[in-house]
Each structure stands twice: as structure tokens, then as C-alpha cells.
TrEMBL record:
GO molecular function, one term: palmitoyl-(protein) hydrolase activity
Protein's job: Catalyzes the synthesis of bis(monoacylglycero)phosphate (BMP) via transacylation of 2 molecules of lysophosphatidylglycerol (LPG). BMP also known as lysobisphosphatidic acid plays a key role in the formation of intraluminal vesicles and in maintaining intracellular cholesterol homeostasis. Can use only LPG as the exclusive lysophospholipid acyl donor for base exchange and displays BMP synthase activity towards various LPGs (LPG 14:0, LPG 16:0, LPG 18:0, LPG 18:1) with a higher preference for longer chain lengths.
UniProt-listed GO biological process terms: lysosome organization
Catalysed conversion reaction: 2 1-(9Z-octadecenoyl)-sn-glycero-3-phospho-(1'-sn-glycerol) = 1-(9Z-octadecenoyl)-sn-glycero-3-phospho-(3'-(9Z-octadecenoyl)-1'-sn-glycerol) + sn-glycero-3-phospho-(1'-sn-glycerol); 2 1-tetradecanoyl-sn-glycero-3-phospho-(1'-sn-glycerol) = 1-tetradecanoyl-sn-glycero-3-phospho-(3'-tetradecanoyl-1'-sn-glycerol) + sn-glycero-3-phospho-(1'-sn-glycerol); 2 1-hexadecanoyl-sn-glycero-3-phospho-(1'-sn-glycerol) = 1-hexadecanoyl-sn-glycero-3-phospho-(3'-hexadecanoyl-1'-sn-glycerol) + sn-glycero-3-phospho-(1'-sn-glycerol); 2 1-acyl-sn-glycero-3-phospho-(1'-sn-glycerol) = 1-acyl-sn-glycero-3-phospho-(3'-acyl-sn-1'-glycerol) + sn-glycero-3-phospho-(1'-sn-glycerol)
Family: Belongs to the CLN5 family.
Organism this protein belongs to: Rotaria sordida
One of the record's GO cellular component terms: lysosomal membrane
Pfam families xref list: CLN5
InterPro entries: CLN5 (IPR026138)
Domain of life: Eukaryota
PANTHER family: CEROID-LIPOFUSCINOSIS NEURONAL PROTEIN 5, CEROID-LIPOFUSCINOSIS, NEURONAL 5
Name of the protein this chain belongs to: Bis(monoacylglycero)phosphate synthase CLN5
Amino acid sequence: TQWPIPYERVTSRPTNNPYCQAGLITFCPTGKTEDAMVYAEDDDDIIEIFALKKPVWSFKFGDLMAKFKVMHDALGFRSQKTGLNWTMEWYELDQLFNCTFPHVLRDDSFIWCNQGALCVYEGIVDSLWNGTSDLSMLKKVGQTSGKNYNAWASWAVNDNNTGVYYETWSVYSDNGPNATIYFDSYDCASFVIRGLNQLYRYGAEILPNIHLNYTRINLYAYEPQLLGTYNQIIQNKTLHKDFINFYREFDSKKPTTEDWIKSLLEIYETFFISRRFYLYFNNVYWYMRLKETTPLKITFYEIPIGSILKNEII
Ligand SMILES: CCCCCCCCCCCCCC(=O)OC[C@@H](O)COP(=O)(O)OC[C@@H](O)CO
């Protein structure tokens, strides 16, 4: 197997299952509709680029998740000509837990509510990004011409229409510097990293001395084994039973009430006991035995801006 398994794009975004509900807050409440984008009116405009960071679920828990270094990332833009600014965030249509674990129905079938999408809306809410957490951020990282920004904006629309599935997990062979990466996450941070990389490719000037850290929830595993699709797995009775029990266990821990943190802690603890995982990636399932020493770790490492700008990121 050639690792990491490349993230598969689609030709067009599928309709979200009506069963899937965002719950606490609807997706992109103040945002624009499908294929939404903000374009510069003038090719000669100067569009300023901002890196935005805030604690995940700050609307509910304030800075709490920042204590675990669980941060949400976005991009902000401002036109020097008009003074107008706008925000772009890529995140889950139906909240994080729905992207991380399926709904297991009575007949043992699954429903995955794991789409993510770009939310584009006028304004940059300073109080949201310039919060009290020392990890929050609203920082200018560069600028570009109106012409180059518009070319990039078309890239962002296509990126949003083809990269539709959220992936919470990053999976490595170990937590050392020479680890093999088996699977890479596809989340809010991935959009910002891809977005900055493409803005640079479309001619943006990125300021020097930019230091950006990104949250990852990492699993450390022995080499994953491909199991195949749900329908292939249910052909094997023993595997099917274990597979269903695994996901039913996690589904039962998903917060249905307000006790998100309790669910989070229960799930976190499960990883250190069971040390095994079924990963759903590109619509197929993989089985992994997790490493005894550190099965799971949330990291917030800096990704050098040079490697963000120069790496081939798809
Ligand atoms: C064990 C399973 C769950 C573990 C949870 C802790 C680790 C999470 C790591 C992933 C980082 C998530 C980054 C991201 O994609 O954030 C997107 C979204 O969850 C942020 O949601 P929000 O409600 O805080 O912000 C959306 C708001 O800005 C909309 O305007």
C-alpha cells in the first residue's frame, strides 16, 4: 500500500441526507448559498489576507477547548479599495461528532453525516477571533491583487464542490519525527493550509515571520488493514458483529444532550482501553490496532509557512 492514502474528491457534492441534523447551530447561518463566493470588484484592488483562529465550540464553551489546544481555523479577507471584509470557514454541515462516528440504526445499517463545506459571509467578527484565549488569532498574513484573488476564489469554489467529506482523524505509525502517515485529516485547518498554498501559487505576497499552529487529533497504529465497503464487511459474520458493536458503542457516546465534554472524555478514555479502531476513509473501512504507548494524542504543532506555501497540496 502506498501511504498516505490520497483523499478522494467527487465530481459534485451529493445532497446531504435529511436524517442529518446540525443540532446546536445550523451550518453557516449568516452565509451565502450554494457556490457562494465573494469576488473583488476591481482587478487592481489589494486584498488583504488574514489567518483566523478560535477555540472549537467557543459559542458554547468559550475558551475551554483551547485548553486542549482544539482550535478552529478560517481565512479572512479585506478589500483596501472598499474597506469591506469577509470570512471563509470550512467545517462540518452537522457538527464534529457526526463527522467522526456514524449513526447505527436498529437494523445495524449506518448513516454517516460527514459532509463539510465552505461557509462564506460578509464581515470578520473580531470578538469571535480576537477572543480571550492566547491561541485565538486574527492576523494579517499577506495580500494579493484583486485579479489574483478572483482567480483563487474560483479555485476555492471548485475545491468546495469536490472535497466534500470531513475527516477528523490523522493516522500515523508513531508520534516520532520519522513516522509514516497513513491517513491525513480533512478539516477546517486543511482548508486554510490548502487555501494559503493556493493563494501563494496565484501570486499572493505572504508576510515573513508568520507562525501558524494547527490542531490535529492523531491515532498511532500498526499498519492499517483494508476491510472494504460496509456491504463487503457484512459478508463476514464475525467481523460484522465486531464492526457493528464498535460503532454502536461510539454512537451511544455521542452527545445527545448538553454533556458534550462528558462524551468527549468517555470516548477519549475508550481509545486507551480498547486500542483498536475502524476508520472510515474514502467510503471504505480500515481496521487498525493502536500502539500501546500512545494510541491517541491531540497536537497543535506549528507548520512552517515555507512548507505550507511550497508543498504540493491537493
Ligand atoms: C474523540 C472524537 C472527538 C474529538 C474532539 C476533539 C478533537 C477535535 C480535533 C479536530 C479539530 C477541529 C477543527 C475543525 O474542523 O473545526 C470545525 C468545527 O468543529 C468548528 O466548529 P465551531 O462551532 O467551533 O465553529 C464554527 C463557527 O465558527 C461557525 O461560524
